[in-house]
Amino acid sequence: AIWGPIFLMQGVAVAWSAFPAKRASPKARAINAIAPAWLAMWTFENLWQFAFVHAPMASSATMGEQLRCFVPCSALLCAAYGSSLAACRRLKAARAPGTAAGAVGPLIELSSGVNAGWLSAASCIGAALVLESLMGGSAQASSAPAIALACAAGAGGMLSLRAWGAGWLGLGYTGAVMWALQAVRYGPATPANVQALAYGGVCALGAAAAATLVVDNTKAKLQ
Question: Among candidates 91, 113, 203, which has minimal Cα distance to 161?
C-alpha cells in the first residue's frame, strides 16, 4: 500500500520539475541531483516486477525453480535500493552551504527517503526469499532470518538519521522501515518471537528519530 503514496509524491515532484527554474536555484540543484538516480531506481523496480511475476506459487516448486526467480529478483531489489540511496546522498550534497534540510524540495526529499527506506526492507525480504528457498521452502525456518535482515535495514535507518538528520530524508527513511516492521509484526502467520523482534525494531527506530529531533532542534536554537 505504501507504493501508492511513494509514486504519487514522485509523480507530483516530476510534474513540479517540468516548470522552469533558474540554473543555480535549489529546485534546479534538486532535479539535477535526483534525475539519474531516480531513473536507475525506477528501471530496476520495473525489471523486478517483470521478474517477480514469474515467481513459483506452487508449494511443489523445486529449489532450482525458486532460485531461478528469487535470486535475480533479490539482485534487482538491491540495485534499486542502491540507486535510492544514491538519490538521497546526491540530494544532501545538492544543498547549498548553510541550507536547512528540505530546502531543496520537501516533496522530493520525503519521497526519496521513504522510497529508500521501503526498498531497504524489500531488499531484506528478497534476500529472505532466497534463504527460504535454500532452506527447502520452509516459511517457519526463514522468518527469523527475514526479520534479522529487516532489523539490519532498521540499523540503516538509524545511520540515515545520523547522516541526514531529522529532516525529510532521515525521517522518511526511518518511517518507511518502521511501517515495514509493523506490517511484518501484524502478519497473520508471524510467530510470536518474530513479532517481538519486529516490535523492538519499531521502538528502537522511534526512539532514535525522537532523539535526533531533540538534538537537531537544540542545535538550531544554540546557533
Answer: 113
The DSSP code sequence of 84-142 is HHHHHHHHHHHSPTTPPTTTT-HHHHHHHHHHHHHHHHHHHHHHHHHHHHHTTS-HHHH
pLDDT at 101 (0 to 100): 46
Measuring CA to CA, which residue among 1, 199, 3 is closest to residue 119?
3
The string of DSSP codes covering 134-171 is HTTS-HHHHHHHHHHHHHHHHHHHHHHHHHH-SSHHHH
pTM comes to: 0.83
List, for residues 64-89, the tens digit of each pLDDT value. Answer: 888 999 999 999 999 999 999 999 88
CA angle at 193 for the pair 192 and 197, rounded to the nearest 5°: 115
CA distance 57 to 35: 36
Look up residue 221 and give its three cell numbers.
Answer: 536554537
Residue 120 is placed in which grid cell?
A: 531497504
Neighbours of 17 (CB within 10 A): 17
- 92 vs 12: CA distance, rounded Å: 20
Say if residue 125 is exposed, middle or buried (CB neighbours under 10 Å; 0-12, 13-18, 19+): middle
C-alpha–C-alpha distance, residues 133 and 4, integer Å: 29
Q: In sequence order, what are the residues at sequence separation of 6 or more whose Cβ sits closer than 8 angstroms to the Cβ of residue 144?
A: 193, 194, 197
